[in-house]
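Please predict the structure of the following assembly.
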Amino acid sequence: MIFRRFAVLIYALLVIIPITMVILTSMKTMSETFENPLGLPGEGVNIANYIDIFRSETMLGYFINSSVVTLASVSFTLMFAAMIAFAITRLTNWIGTIVFLLFTLGMMVPAQVNMVPLYNVVLQLGLTNSLLGLILVNISVTMPVAVFILTGFMKTLPKELFEASTIDGAGEWKMFTSVVIPLSLPSLSATAIFLFVMHWNDLLYPLLFITDNNYKTLPLALLEFQGQYATNYPMLFTGVMIASAPMVLAYIFLQRYFVAGMTAGAVKG
Amino acid sequence: MRASKNIYLFLVPGFILYSIFFLYPTVSAFFYSFTDWDGISSEFDFVGVDNYIRAATNDSIFAQAVGNNLSFMLFVVIFQTIFSLIFAIILIKNTKFNIFLRALFFFPTILSSVSVAFIWSFIYDPSMGLLNTFLGISGLEALQQNWLGNQNIAIYSLAFTQVWFHTGQMLIIFVAGLHAIPNDLYEVAKIEGASKWQTFKKITWPLLAPSATIVVAYTTIQSFKAFDLIFATTRGGPNHSTEIIATYIYEVAFRSYNFGYASSISVIFMVIIAIITYLQFKVLRSDKVSY
Amino acid sequence: MKKSLFLSFGTAISMTILLSACAGDQGGGDASGSNDDTNNSGGNAEASEDQTQISFIHWRGEDTEVFDEIIEEFESENPDIAVEMNVYPSEQYQSNAQQMLRDGSVGDVFTSFPGSQFEVIRDAGFFADLTDEEFVSNFNAEAIEIGQADGQQLAVPYQLVFNMPVYNVDMFEELGIEPPQSWDEFIEMGATLQENDIQPIAFPGGDIGPNQFMNSMMMNNAPDEDIFAKLESGEESLTNDWWVSTLEDFQTLLDEGMISEDSLGIQQDSAIASVAQEEAAMLATGSYHMASLKEQNSELNLDFLPPITVSEDEAQYEGIHTATFMLAVNENSEKQEEAKQFIEYLSQPEVASKYANETGQHLTIEDVEYTSEELQDTAYWLTDKETRFQPRFFITNSSVENAVLSSIEQVLGGDSPQDAAEQAQQVVEENIE
């Protein structure tokens, strides 16, 4: 028991200390950061950097763009991936295996590899500088992970469930929406959190496809605090704090479903 | 209980997108791996398997990158899996405090890789960094290191950062997996007077196998793709000691403008991951139990 | 259970649609002058029809503010042109710029590094020929040679950077140290500084240190300007004396404690800080960091102090310069005329002076008036000193460049110069035809 508490405590410190450092740095000035990297900010609680960021009128636009892209990407990835995972679980023949392999393989492809060919595709479809283009690409590149995780969980659902609903004469769609989805809530919300994080922080694709300031997302905006020869750490960390806030909210929101999954007792095959 | 034909319709929307924006570009990359394309010009020549021969026989940095990547992967897979499993078991009950701690442990995951890189560069800085300062204050000067500058330990410093970054994420998968284990099994075990260890060995572990497979496989793949973190922290240096395959692919494709060769390295890279993932599946699935 | 799920899914999706609509509005709303032919900006009263929008891309995040002002003035003088500027970090710029230039929609005016990026863009044919443009005469003829190829002026470098160590002049005076003129004096200087508990050289080995400091370290060991061309053609080898002795000089600096043992883990920001706080005497990067140093410690008095690695009478070169931030017009662009007009504007001495003084950079434009203190104090390097173009930019193959830099890191990590040179040479041979 003591060992448990100790291990948890140590790890908690390991997380809290760097976060505290980020918060403190975001309240410092540039020169303070280096003169006194570990100390408290000279002016106490100083939110000047936060005000500065929100004063620049473009920030709100970036924030909205990021929200749109993330929400749409997460919802559709989750929906399509759950459908595919369900199909894989139901298909007992070779097609199911092939589909599963095809998506698993997708996780292994490093993003650097298909960056150039992907850019060509997006360009030919006229989807550069468009949020829609970004969303479609996001869905496609994160689907493998989502399919992989969801299939893993759906396979553990008791087979009798499917049989029971087949006898009831329910179609596949009904079975999917009224049996499988509710039972997969814990894994769906775990996957949703993964996807939220990935899409919200994604830098590579906006960097490639978006050059118009009206369609830029937050991670792209954060890059502006990084110069060729000097990085504005206080501003950067302020940006990090602001960009992280929605993720904290998303986590708190989705966390309820893990709990729900537990207490509903539905999983007890 | 065979599925009806309608089930294929479930594949359609996802598959269309996946084909256009993923399969097609990936297959093109495979095609380019047999060419000398620079990634920009409209012209290129076919060079057969020359690129593959070069990677296998005449590229000392690629060999080094593969080695580094394996060390990095082993460290991350072992520590990340153990940490997340232990914390999941400790924090399984949905008390307020546990929920808070799970959220806290998850926090690093929501940061972007670039932010994590900045934070840890700050921590690892040899003279004014948090870590060496802390060791200095605690009288542990002997343990002070040049964490990212020493060629022998830099890759492990980065591996630790990666563990810090993603343990919370894996913790969630394990928690979801543990929650899926029916409570009655534990009640039966309790009635039969099984010890904690016996319960873990006979019930928790076998039923956790699917989650464990996901965690281990995903962690493996993540550690091969830890491009952003490493690139933003050390860019593969010093002297390629933190070069992993993904950073090397980037260098070859976008700095040396040798897209054809970079594609062939990527194909080899995929084969390596596929083999390792397959082996892991074999090992972890062997003790699969159904209930 | 089920209901709440669909509720949240439904909410998510409808919120998405709603927000998409908002974002679309916002996108269309201020897409003034965006010349894409989608007409979703309909209903917008701004007159954008007869305005041409050009895109300007570069990598100098530090300069955003000055450029914003310059662009505003340019636009008011040329009401029919709007400039949209996009800034990328230099890393991403090096990898992504070429892709974006391909279709001509971005980067009507773009910038290029000399060296391998210039070569690749030239190979791909993205440079519009600027040879006959009048504004070329506003530039210093010698400085812009690096932007020429096959008798054409493909790009015009804008900034003039001195890639050699910066030092704290007052500190040297207080300690009675004369700027060293030879390698022996340089080592002696290091000893004196260390006696006074000052780190002689702050060397950011974790990022740009090796690729900046190698230039002045080798300038007199390998005075031949074609040395890297010869290396890439196989005529020269890194195991020959010019490079091995450079590595040995690095080792000497390490052994004498002039570069700290930790240097490979130090990033540029913390190296700057240690010089600004007067814990170190020299910063082994370049002129571009003078503004940051002054910002952190306004009392500093700075000048350059490149190491002379030979005896005084053998020294041919006194320092290093680079003409960079090369302005160019995209060959694939349909708005080349407007793009050239913008470069013409940047090359006017008054505009250039504003840029120079606000960013703390020397420029390649003739007749620029340097009013800022550190620029005035160091301007004599432009005229009175024998400086040499940064040798590193004569390496056109980036794998070769990496091998060269790795050998420095290897020596600073404790390996012998001979071994490091041999391993680097092996990588070079793997990468040249």
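The radius of gyration of chain C is 25 Å. Confidence is low (pLDDT under 50) at residues 1-47 of chain C.
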